[in-house]
Amino acid sequence: MTANKSTVINGLLWAFLDQFSSKGISIIVSIILARILSPEDFGMMGLIYFFTAIAQELVDGGLSSSLIRCENSDTKDYSTIFVTNVVISFIIYAILFFIAPYFSAYYDMPVLEPILKVYGLIFIINAFSTVQLTLLSKELKFRKIMLINIPGLCIGSLVAVWLASKDYGVWSIVYMQLITQIITAVIFWIKNKEVKLFFSYVILKKHFDFGFKIMLSSIVNAIFRNLSNIVIGKSYSVKELGYFERARTLSMYPSYVFVGVLSKVFYPVFSKIKDQTELTNAYKNVLNVSFYITFGALLLLAAIAYPIFGLVLGEKWLFAVPFFQLFCLRAAIHPLQVFNLNILKVKGLSNKLLRIEFLNRLLGFAALCIGLFFNLYWLVVILTISDFIAYFNNIIATQNYHHYRLKDQIKDFSPTIAITIIAFLACYAIHEYSGISQLSWTNIGLQASVYIALYLFLSIVFKNKNFLYILATIRSKIPSKK
User: What single-letter DSSP state applies at residue 316?
Assistant: First the structure.
C-alpha cells in the first residue's frame, strides 16, 4: 500500500474521533430537541430533506471523488473545482427559491416556503468549504478536520436548544444547520490557503468526465432515498413522517459513523493500490470488521429500543419504535452496500456504478409503490426487504472486481450473524419475561450488559476472526513494556 499501515491506522482513529464527536453531539442535541419539539416539526424537515439532499449532490457534482482519485491534483485543480462548486450552488439555490411556493402549496403548509428558502442557503455556504475538506481528506488529515468541525457544531447546537426552548419550533433546526455550516466554512478558509480564484475549462473537463457519473449515481441515490419522505408526507401524515424520519435518522447514526470513517480513509488509500491481491485482502478486512461492529451495535439498539425511546425521547415517540427496529436491520447492511459499490469508484468504473445504483433505486421505488397499499409499518418492512435484495445485487454486479463473491461473504458473515442473534434473543427474553418494568433504566442496563457480555464471550469462545483482528490492532497501538 502507498500509505503505510501506521498512517492508515492514525487516519482511522482521527476520522473515527471526528465522526464520533460530531455524531455524538448531533445525537445528544437530537434527543433534546425531540423532547421539546413535536413529531410534526421533524416531519416538516423530512419534507425539506428531499430537495436539500439532491441539491447538495448537484453542488459537488462528484468532483470531490475525482480530486481524491486523481494522484497529481494541484492548486489549479482545487481552485477550478472550487469556482465550479460556488457557481453551481447559486444556480441551485435560485431553483429552490423559485419552486418553494409551489412545494408549500402542494402540501398546503405555508411555513414550508420560507423554510426551504432559508435552509437552501446552506448549499452556497457549503460550496465555500467542500474543496478544502476534500484536500484534507485526501491527505488523511482527519485530526484537523475534527478540530474544524467541532466549534460550529457546538455553537449551532446550543443555539438550536435555546431557540427550541423559546418555542421557535422547526426553525430551531433550520438555524442550527445554518450557524453550524457558516462557522465551519469560515474556519476552513482561515486554516486552508490552497484554493485560489482560478478556473480552467480543460481541468474541469478532466474531473467532470469521471465525476459526472458519480454525481448522477449520487443524485439517483438521494432522490430514491428521500422520495419516501415526500410520499409518506402526502399519503399518510406529516406526524407519521416525523416518526418515520426520526426512526430512520437515529438508526443510521452508528452505521454512518463507521461507513463515513472507513470511506474517508480507505477510498484514497484503495485508489493507490495497484496489486489486485493486496486490494482484495484489504477490502475483505474492511468489509468484515465494519459488519462485525455495526451489525452488533445496531441489533443491540433494536433490542433496547422500547425503553430507550420511552425514557430518553419521551413516551410521545413510542410509536416510532417498530420503525426504528426495522431501520436498524436496514442500517446493518448499509456498510456492505456502500463498500461493495466503492470498489467501482476505486477502479474508475463510474458508468457501471451509475447503472447499478439506478437499478437498485428502481427496486426501492417499486417497493415504495407496493407498500403504499398497506399501513406505514408494512411499508417499512417492504422497503427493508428491497434493501437486502439490493445488497445481493451489488455483490453479484461487483464480485469480478473485488474477487469477494456472494457465497464467500455469506460464509464470512455467518459467525457474526449467529452470535448477534443469540445475544438479541437473550435481550428479548429479559425484556419480556424478567418482570422488570419495561420503561426503566434497570431494564436498559440489564439488557445492554447481557447483550455486550454475551456478544464478546461468544466472539472469544468461537474465535471470531473480526474480534481477534480488532484486538490485535488495539494491542499494536499500545506501547510494549521493555
Answer: G
- CA separation for the pair 131, 192 (Å, rounded): 10
Give CA separation, 194 vs 64, 248, 262, in Å.
15, 38, 25
Q: How many CB atoms lie within 10 A of CB 149?
A: 21
Could you write out the DSSP letters of every residue in 115-158? HHHHHTHHHHHHHTTHHHHHHHHHTT-HHHHHHHHHHHHHHHHH
Mean pLDDT by 10 residues, the chain (482 residues): 56 67 82 91 88 68 68 77 84 89 90 91 84 75 79 92 93 92 87 74 75 70 79 89 90 76 62 69 80 90 92 91 93 82 72 80 89 92 92 82 81 92 91 81 91 94 87 69 52
Phi, psi of 386 (to 5 degrees): -65, -30
8 A C-beta contact, residue 187 and residue 133: no
- Sort residue 3 into left (φ over 0), alpha (ψ -120 to 50) or beta: beta
- Return the ∠ at Cα 265 (arms to 264 and 267), rounded to 5°: 75
* Degrees, nearest 5: CA angle 157-159-165: 105
What pLDDT is attached to residue 446?
92
- C-alpha cell read off for 480: 510494549
**Residue in the structure block whose three cell numbers are 429552490:** 96
Q: Is 274 helix (H, G, I), strand (E, B) or coil?
A: coil
Q: Match 417498530 to its residue by C-alpha cell.
A: 322
What is the rounded distance in angstroms from the CA atom of residue 257 to the CA atom of residue 239? Answer: 27
Of residues 56, 174, 224, 78, the one with CA closest to residue 124: 56
Residue 135: the pLDDT is 77
Of 288, 281, 228, nearest to 258 (Cα)? 288
Question: d(Cα 328, Cα 348) in Å, to the nearest integer?
Answer: 31
Q: What is the identity of the amino acid at 366? A: A
User: What per-residue string of b and e applies to 365-402 under the rule 16 or more CB within 10 Å gives b?
Assistant: bebbeebbeeebeebbbbbbbbbeebbebbbebbbebb
Q: Answer yes or no: are the C-beta atoms of 306 and 318 closer than 8 Å.
A: yes
In the chain the first and final C-alpha atoms are separated, in Å, by 30
Is 314 in contact with 35 (CB distance < 8 Å)? yes
Rounded Cα distance between 6 and 61, Å, is: 32
Distance CA(248)–CA(451), nearest Å, equals 23
In angstroms, the CA 360 to CA 345 distance is 17
